[in-house]
Amino acid sequence: MESGTMGTKGHVQDIIPHKTSNYASTNDPPEAGIPFCTLKSFPSKIEHTIQWARDKFQTTFTLKPRETSQFATDSKIDGFWEKLKAKNPSKPDLHRAIKLLSIRPKNFMDCLQLALHKFTSFFRNSIIQLTYIYPPDYVKDGHLFWSPPRRIPKHIEFDINNATHIDFVINCALLFANVYQIKNVDNDRNNIVKILAGITIPPYQVKKDKYIESDETATPEQAKAKQQKENFQPGEFDQMISKIQELTQSIQ
Questions:
Q1: Residues marked as catalytic
Q2: Which residue range is the domain that position 36 belongs to?
Q3: Could you say which of 70, 147, 241, 250 is the most buried, measured as most Cβ atoms within 10 Å of its Cβ?
Protein backbone atom coordinates (compact mmCIF):
# COMPACT_ATOMS: atom_id res chain seq x y z
CA MET A 1 0.00 0.00 0.00
CA GLU A 2 1.35 3.40 -0.93
CA SER A 3 0.04 6.94 -0.52
CA GLY A 4 1.03 9.40 -3.20
CA THR A 5 2.69 12.77 -2.72
CA MET A 6 0.35 14.49 -5.16
CA GLY A 7 -2.62 15.13 -2.92
CA THR A 8 -4.56 12.40 -1.16
CA LYS A 9 -4.50 9.65 -3.78
CA GLY A 10 -2.98 6.24 -3.15
CA HIS A 11 -2.92 2.72 -4.60
CA VAL A 12 -2.65 -0.96 -3.64
CA GLN A 13 -0.76 -3.70 -5.51
CA ASP A 14 -1.16 -7.43 -4.83
CA ILE A 15 2.11 -9.37 -4.87
CA ILE A 16 2.36 -13.16 -4.38
CA PRO A 17 5.91 -14.61 -4.20
CA HIS A 18 6.86 -16.68 -7.28
CA LYS A 19 3.38 -16.20 -8.80
CA THR A 20 3.13 -12.51 -9.66
CA SER A 21 5.59 -9.85 -10.69
CA ASN A 22 7.36 -8.15 -7.81
CA TYR A 23 7.16 -4.47 -6.98
CA ALA A 24 10.46 -3.59 -8.61
CA SER A 25 9.79 -5.30 -11.93
CA THR A 26 7.57 -2.53 -13.28
CA ASN A 27 8.05 1.22 -13.51
CA ASP A 28 5.36 3.73 -12.65
CA PRO A 29 4.31 6.00 -15.52
CA PRO A 30 5.77 9.51 -15.23
CA GLU A 31 3.55 11.88 -13.30
CA ALA A 32 2.30 14.94 -15.12
CA GLY A 33 3.80 18.07 -13.64
CA ILE A 34 1.76 21.08 -12.59
CA PRO A 35 2.11 24.00 -15.05
CA PHE A 36 4.27 26.83 -13.72
CA CYS A 37 1.57 29.51 -14.00
CA THR A 38 -1.04 27.26 -12.35
CA LEU A 39 1.23 26.59 -9.41
CA LYS A 40 2.25 30.24 -9.04
CA SER A 41 -0.98 32.14 -9.70
CA PHE A 42 -3.95 29.94 -10.61
CA PRO A 43 -4.26 26.92 -8.28
CA SER A 44 -7.63 25.20 -8.62
CA LYS A 45 -7.10 21.85 -6.85
CA ILE A 46 -5.89 20.79 -3.42
CA GLU A 47 -2.76 19.20 -4.95
CA HIS A 48 -1.86 22.58 -6.47
CA THR A 49 -1.97 24.26 -3.06
CA ILE A 50 0.01 21.43 -1.48
CA GLN A 51 2.77 21.75 -4.06
CA TRP A 52 2.68 25.57 -3.80
CA ALA A 53 3.19 25.31 -0.03
CA ARG A 54 6.05 22.83 -0.43
CA ASP A 55 7.79 25.05 -2.95
CA LYS A 56 7.37 28.16 -0.78
CA PHE A 57 8.67 26.29 2.27
CA GLN A 58 11.79 25.10 0.46
CA THR A 59 12.45 28.51 -1.10
CA THR A 60 11.85 30.49 2.11
CA PHE A 61 13.66 28.30 4.62
CA THR A 62 16.30 26.53 2.51
CA LEU A 63 17.17 28.08 -0.85
CA LYS A 64 17.11 31.79 0.02
CA PRO A 65 19.00 31.45 3.35
CA ARG A 66 21.57 29.21 1.64
CA GLU A 67 21.97 31.71 -1.21
CA THR A 68 22.45 34.56 1.27
CA SER A 69 25.03 32.66 3.33
CA GLN A 70 26.91 31.56 0.22
CA PHE A 71 27.00 35.11 -1.08
CA ALA A 72 28.34 36.39 2.23
CA THR A 73 31.01 33.66 2.27
CA ASP A 74 32.10 34.19 -1.34
CA SER A 75 32.33 37.96 -0.85
CA LYS A 76 35.30 37.43 1.49
CA ILE A 77 37.34 35.76 -1.28
CA ASP A 78 40.00 37.97 -2.86
CA GLY A 79 38.90 39.38 -6.20
CA PHE A 80 35.21 38.52 -5.67
CA TRP A 81 33.88 42.03 -6.33
CA GLU A 82 35.98 42.46 -9.46
CA LYS A 83 34.66 39.15 -10.81
CA LEU A 84 31.09 40.12 -9.93
CA LYS A 85 31.36 43.39 -11.85
CA ALA A 86 32.96 41.58 -14.80
CA LYS A 87 29.90 39.28 -15.03
CA ASN A 88 27.79 42.42 -15.57
CA PRO A 89 24.78 41.14 -13.58
CA SER A 90 21.33 42.44 -14.47
CA LYS A 91 19.50 45.01 -12.40
CA PRO A 92 16.86 42.48 -11.17
CA ASP A 93 19.68 40.14 -10.04
CA LEU A 94 21.30 42.93 -8.02
CA HIS A 95 17.91 43.91 -6.61
CA ARG A 96 17.42 40.31 -5.51
CA ALA A 97 20.82 40.20 -3.79
CA ILE A 98 20.13 43.47 -1.96
CA LYS A 99 16.69 42.26 -0.89
CA LEU A 100 17.96 38.89 0.40
CA LEU A 101 20.77 40.52 2.37
CA SER A 102 18.52 43.31 3.70
CA ILE A 103 15.78 41.07 5.09
CA ARG A 104 18.18 38.71 6.88
CA PRO A 105 16.92 38.84 10.51
CA LYS A 106 19.30 39.82 13.31
CA ASN A 107 16.98 39.15 16.27
CA PHE A 108 13.61 37.58 17.04
CA MET A 109 11.76 40.85 16.46
CA ASP A 110 13.14 40.82 12.92
CA CYS A 111 11.90 37.23 12.56
CA LEU A 112 8.38 38.26 13.57
CA GLN A 113 8.36 41.20 11.19
CA LEU A 114 9.66 39.03 8.35
CA ALA A 115 7.04 36.35 9.09
CA LEU A 116 4.27 38.97 9.08
CA HIS A 117 5.64 40.30 5.80
CA LYS A 118 5.48 36.78 4.32
CA PHE A 119 1.84 36.39 5.39
CA THR A 120 0.96 39.74 3.84
CA SER A 121 2.93 39.00 0.68
CA PHE A 122 1.47 35.52 0.14
CA PHE A 123 -2.16 36.12 1.03
CA ARG A 124 -2.76 39.83 0.37
CA ASN A 125 -0.26 41.58 -1.89
CA SER A 126 0.14 38.87 -4.53
CA ILE A 127 -3.65 38.42 -4.74
CA ILE A 128 -4.31 42.16 -5.07
CA GLN A 129 -1.68 42.33 -7.82
CA LEU A 130 -3.08 39.28 -9.62
CA THR A 131 -6.67 40.57 -9.63
CA TYR A 132 -5.43 43.98 -10.80
CA ILE A 133 -3.76 42.41 -13.84
CA TYR A 134 -6.67 39.97 -14.37
CA PRO A 135 -9.84 41.60 -12.95
CA PRO A 136 -13.10 39.61 -12.55
CA ASP A 137 -14.40 40.76 -15.97
CA TYR A 138 -11.12 40.16 -17.85
CA VAL A 139 -11.58 38.50 -21.25
CA LYS A 140 -8.86 36.53 -23.05
CA ASP A 141 -9.23 34.99 -26.50
CA GLY A 142 -12.94 35.81 -26.47
CA HIS A 143 -13.62 33.98 -23.20
CA LEU A 144 -14.03 35.13 -19.63
CA PHE A 145 -10.60 34.62 -18.07
CA TRP A 146 -11.90 33.54 -14.65
CA SER A 147 -13.80 30.50 -15.90
CA PRO A 148 -13.46 26.94 -14.50
CA PRO A 149 -11.04 25.44 -13.68
CA ARG A 150 -9.62 28.89 -12.74
CA ARG A 151 -10.99 30.28 -9.50
CA ILE A 152 -10.74 33.99 -8.81
CA PRO A 153 -8.97 34.45 -5.46
CA LYS A 154 -9.88 36.79 -2.61
CA HIS A 155 -7.10 38.45 -0.64
CA ILE A 156 -6.86 38.22 3.15
CA GLU A 157 -5.98 41.02 5.54
CA PHE A 158 -3.96 39.95 8.59
CA ASP A 159 -6.34 39.66 11.56
CA ILE A 160 -4.79 39.78 15.03
CA ASN A 161 -7.88 37.95 16.36
CA ASN A 162 -7.64 35.07 13.90
CA ALA A 163 -5.83 32.11 15.51
CA THR A 164 -4.82 30.67 12.13
CA HIS A 165 -3.16 33.93 11.13
CA ILE A 166 -1.30 34.09 14.44
CA ASP A 167 -0.21 30.44 14.16
CA PHE A 168 1.21 31.07 10.70
CA VAL A 169 3.26 34.08 11.80
CA ILE A 170 4.53 32.48 15.03
CA ASN A 171 5.63 29.23 13.40
CA CYS A 172 7.14 31.09 10.45
CA ALA A 173 9.09 33.33 12.86
CA LEU A 174 10.34 30.35 14.85
CA LEU A 175 11.55 28.69 11.65
CA PHE A 176 13.38 31.87 10.65
CA ALA A 177 14.97 32.00 14.11
CA ASN A 178 16.13 28.40 13.72
CA VAL A 179 17.47 28.87 10.19
CA TYR A 180 19.38 32.06 11.02
CA GLN A 181 20.46 30.82 14.48
CA ILE A 182 18.72 33.62 16.37
CA LYS A 183 19.06 33.52 20.14
CA ASN A 184 16.67 34.82 22.84
CA VAL A 185 13.53 33.51 21.13
CA ASP A 186 10.24 34.49 22.80
CA ASN A 187 7.78 31.57 22.75
CA ASP A 188 5.09 33.34 24.79
CA ARG A 189 2.05 33.59 22.53
CA ASN A 190 0.52 36.50 24.45
CA ASN A 191 3.72 38.54 24.18
CA ILE A 192 3.96 37.82 20.47
CA VAL A 193 0.34 38.86 19.88
CA LYS A 194 1.02 42.17 21.67
CA ILE A 195 4.08 42.75 19.49
CA LEU A 196 2.19 41.97 16.29
CA ALA A 197 -0.65 44.27 17.33
CA GLY A 198 1.84 47.14 17.41
CA ILE A 199 3.17 46.57 13.89
CA THR A 200 1.60 48.72 11.17
CA ILE A 201 1.06 46.96 7.86
CA PRO A 202 1.34 49.49 5.00
CA PRO A 203 -1.18 49.35 2.14
CA TYR A 204 -0.10 47.60 -1.03
CA GLN A 205 0.58 49.68 -4.13
CA VAL A 206 -0.11 47.73 -7.32
CA LYS A 207 2.59 47.58 -9.98
CA LYS A 208 0.95 48.63 -13.23
CA ASP A 209 3.69 47.21 -15.46
CA LYS A 210 4.14 43.87 -13.66
CA TYR A 211 3.89 40.78 -15.86
CA ILE A 212 2.07 37.65 -14.64
CA GLU A 213 2.32 34.56 -16.86
CA SER A 214 -0.97 32.85 -17.77
CA ASP A 215 0.26 30.45 -20.47
CA GLU A 216 0.18 26.92 -19.05
CA THR A 217 2.90 25.76 -21.45
CA ALA A 218 5.39 28.41 -20.30
CA THR A 219 8.39 27.45 -18.18
CA PRO A 220 9.75 29.63 -15.34
CA GLU A 221 12.63 30.68 -17.59
CA GLN A 222 10.26 31.70 -20.40
CA ALA A 223 8.08 33.67 -17.99
CA LYS A 224 11.12 35.49 -16.61
CA ALA A 225 12.27 36.37 -20.12
CA LYS A 226 8.92 38.06 -20.85
CA GLN A 227 9.20 40.40 -17.88
CA GLN A 228 10.06 43.99 -18.59
CA LYS A 229 13.82 44.52 -18.57
CA GLU A 230 15.15 47.21 -16.25
CA ASN A 231 18.03 49.43 -17.32
CA PHE A 232 20.56 51.02 -14.99
CA GLN A 233 20.50 54.77 -14.46
CA PRO A 234 23.89 56.55 -14.62
CA GLY A 235 25.98 55.45 -11.63
CA GLU A 236 23.28 53.07 -10.36
CA PHE A 237 25.28 49.89 -11.04
CA ASP A 238 28.17 51.00 -8.80
CA GLN A 239 25.73 52.21 -6.14
CA MET A 240 24.03 48.82 -6.01
CA ILE A 241 27.36 46.98 -5.82
CA SER A 242 28.42 49.28 -2.95
CA LYS A 243 25.14 48.57 -1.15
CA ILE A 244 25.69 44.82 -1.46
CA GLN A 245 29.23 45.22 -0.09
CA GLU A 246 27.88 47.17 2.87
CA LEU A 247 25.24 44.52 3.62
CA THR A 248 27.64 41.57 3.37
CA GLN A 249 30.08 43.21 5.79
CA SER A 250 27.40 43.17 8.51
CA ILE A 251 27.04 39.36 8.28
CA GLN A 252 29.33 37.41 10.58
A1: 37
A2: 2-68+103-218
A3: 241
